[in-house]
């Protein structure tokens, strides 16, 4: 009975989130991290972020190396994907991430209407300049009434006021409602990377797609994300995960990367 209760609660939270997004009910007041915590039980923004260059030495598998980055994040760990390309996992605020402001992109976990919402989606819209990004999203053709980016697909816009040059918008699955969430989540990552490659993006930063209100279990999501990224190991110079609280997401991603990137 306990499992059924929590499963029902998670579905309700996901449906509520999508309804709020589709009707743009999240005002600036509700987008405040404190109010977001009230709605969803966690805050997508770390309480403090270091802007200095950080060196983190990790006692891990030999696949992890010391990394020094200056990209608005903390606790940076680097894994080689190939001889010249890398997966980088760090804590931080994805809206502050960038590498060169020319060939870099952050991924926005959007809704299908692409009109902004709560969590990271709302934070990215605000940081990019809400009017500027809204207009760019409105210019994306609808594939059917009210839908610009179906679940699992990806679209690209400029980054506007963000330090990164582009935003790639993708829609992840609601775990308990999608008939095949692993396939949909893999498609979201795969299509984001494909769009990046087509637009000469060399550096891309992902959040943990669908791991918030959409209820995707962290371990399963990390397996899908990192396995899919391995398919593009020779296509981009660096693939980053910039992960917000809770810390368990970061820890799961580090562990899963160590397991999947041993080969």
TrEMBL record:
Domain Macro, residue spans: 74-263
Superkingdom of origin: Eukaryota
UniProt cross-references to SUPFAM superfamilies, sorted A to Z: Macro domain-like
Name used for this protein in its record: Macro domain-containing protein
Organism classification: Eukaryota, Viridiplantae, Streptophyta, Embryophyta, Tracheophyta
